[in-house]
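Design job #97: recover the sequence.
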């Protein structure tokens, strides 16, 4: 089950609800600042669903889901549990958005009334009549969607759609930025860890840095273990945390 990242509603209380005109431009700018101020991609996603409820006309709830081709979707962020259940129908349930496949090629899909075809789907079963689905990311294998929900039918008009597209552009940029920051941070941590492991091997095996790194790489390949994980094992073993070193059986 995805981890729930909680953002206090008070963090967004300074933003007007459903802004228009010049107020919209100012509000989107403020929202962008808040999105870029988040530390990790998960925090960015959680901030995005909270902001979506405040910014998109008609929105009462919101969630972000990831869909993989040929696989079941999973919910990454949600404002309440009903959104998560709407996006992840249980056994025997129908997909809440039969047109979501269109989001691979079009940026927006609107559900005007979930009961139009007699109901019985996940949305209507949760009392959600309208949905506005906006594409955040898409490639050949993965689709990320932000969806706003409402309890009344035809809650989302053209204004909501236009604001939603502007907002998701900011979310996409902030998410890309947070992802890059996280990757760089992880790369720095991995580099430091491998450096420590190399130093340990140099001392233990009385070899130079190049030889120690080569030994580490060969052990990683031989044991089919990621270089980072093998380095962590060596460092932990050296500090008394247990584990097995390179060449030890």
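Job complete. Output follows.
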């Amino acid at each position: 089950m995805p981890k729930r990242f909680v953002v206090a509603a008070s963090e967004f209380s300074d933003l007007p609800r459903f802004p228009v005109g010049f107020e919209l431009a100012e509000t989107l700018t403020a929202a962008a600042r808040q999105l870029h101020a988040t530390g990790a991609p998960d925090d960015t996603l959680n901030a995005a669903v909270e902001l979506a409820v405040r910014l998109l006309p008609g929105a009462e709830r919101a969630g972000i889901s990831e869909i993989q081709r040929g696989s079941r979707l999973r919910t990454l962020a949600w404002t309440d549990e009903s959104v998560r259940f709407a996006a992840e129908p249980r056994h025997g349930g129908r997909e809440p958005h039969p047109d979501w496949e269109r989001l691979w090629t079009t940026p927006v899909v609107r559900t005007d009334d979930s009961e139009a075809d007699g109901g019985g789907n996940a949305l209507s079963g949760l009392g959600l009549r309208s949905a506005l689905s906006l594409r955040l990311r898409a490639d050949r294998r993965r689709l990320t969607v932000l969806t706003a929900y409402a309890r009344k039918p035809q809650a989302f008009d053209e204004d909501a759609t236009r604001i939603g597209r502007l907002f998701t552009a900011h979310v996409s940029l902030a998410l890309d930025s947070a992802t890059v920051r996280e990757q760089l941070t992880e790369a720095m941590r991995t580099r430091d860890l491998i450096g420590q492991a190399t130093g340990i091997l140099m001392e233990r095996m009385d070899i130079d840095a190049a030889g120690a790194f080569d030994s580490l790489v060969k052990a990683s390949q031989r044991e089919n273990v990621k270089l980072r994980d093998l380095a962590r094992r060596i460092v932990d073993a050296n500090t008394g945390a247990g584990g097995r070193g390179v060449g030890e059986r």
